[in-house]
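DegT/DnrJ/EryC1/StrS family aminotransferase, pasting as requested.
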Amino acid sequence: MPEDPGEPRFRGLHARDRLFHRRLLSAGLERKPHHEPPPRRRNRVAAQHGLPPGAVADRAGAERARRVQRDRRRHRDGLRGADRQGGAQGAPAAAGNPPVSALALFGGTPVAPKGIDENWPEVTETDIAAVTDTLRSGRLSWMNDDQVRELEREWAGYTGTAHCLAVNSGTAALHAAVAAAGIGPGDEVIVPALSFLASATCVLHHQGIPVFADVDPVTFTLDPSDVEHRISRRTKAIIAVHLHGLPADMAAVSEIARRHGLVVIEDAAQAHGATVDGVRAGALGDLGAFSIMAGKNLATAGEGGLLTTNDTGLRNRADAVKMFGETIDPDGHRDYHAHTLGWNYRFSSILAAFTRSQLARLDTYIDETRAGANRLTGTLSELPGVLPPVVPDGRTHVYHHFRVRFDPAQAGLDVAPGPFRRVVGEALTAEGIPVIGYQNRPLPGQRLFAERVGYGRGCPWTCGHTARTVEYRPEEYTSTLAVISGSLLVGSRLCPASFRDPAAISAYEDAFVKVFGRLGELAAYARTIDYAEPWEDGDRLW
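Structure tokens follow.
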């Protein structure tokens, strides 16, 4: 009997490929699928070359993997040659075919051969019951839903704000905040050069112009000293991104905003529960925007966002953007009259129920993640050339990500930061420890801003409402470039997925100690590789 296209060997194919095989089978012909599903194929190629999942995203990624493999082979051959002459820095010889180095990168035994478990979100029976109870209630529409309203009330209470709106993504929350702030065609908004794309595109969504400022090279958040000279007479707002879970320098940002009459929008997509002097993210600016997609510290079962503010006028303008430009009464009454341009950013009652259940455990997750991060920080601080995250006085970090900088000069090595970062990343990955980059270029270096096609014909940059020509030159953002070139995130997902597990922290510690105990070997390898900076090497962003 011919196999059915639903059999495992046909799964993962594009619909048109499944149809093709179905027609072959119906004609009595058989043919194996001519390819693996692309994501699976790319991850297989990455694994063959000792790279993390997702590292081979395109043809350029495959070429990068081949270069990495060639560099390692060349360095390994050099080690074997040195070993034959009695000068290798490798492990003691063993019977058979001994490894030439203790590092897994060059044939040694990895610290964590099975890798690190990074499952997230953690779904409990309570979460499942919250979802099923909502389904059984039949209260599934915005007209009779109570879960969304309760989530809004609870998140406003948690952040210490007067108002919260639940929307269907973090990007929607940012866009609604930009619209509520009164941003219009040609108005400028200051945005950090290091962030996720939505921190800037939310401005374009309302015909505004993003103007980028550099980041602090230690905290990775907006550098207030660079904000000041980016302000023009058309500047209306500042978006302060609490990158990786650490709040920006809100005192300095707010002082600049007050002097220039600007609205401050917090992009707190990664900072649920972070604080400045005891005040939680979301209550530090005029408006706050959170993502609660399933990969965030506070997760929903899919996509979602939360907007916070203490200003009733801002809340109402954002609410109009959320629902077709209409004015919605507190009791839910609507007049089906659009007062402004609006979208459909409504949130699901089922997802709200899941998020409310997760919110009950958020503080526990924060405490457990922070304990793991503090422990790892203590260990890494003792290693030469390793600079773990810095938390300034008065701020708390919730560690959505744990970014580590590398300083080969501090370690006494005559190697450039970029090649050193790359070989450290390869060495840790080979030990079974997931490490990744975060963004491979400053936001102004992305094609969207380089070409400025926008909505078409160059709008909003060329639609006649701008006061000046805003140029995007990524080389201006030297701190952002240095951070991208010289640092990595520990873990391939958010920190709560692994940092709450003491065994995972032990594996991270052991791998770093092992790798940084072989600095001479790493430096020698770094001098041989064919290196290009991340922003020069293909189009991948992760």
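Note for the archive: The domain at 125-355 is CATH 3.40.640.10 (Aspartate Aminotransferase; domain 2).
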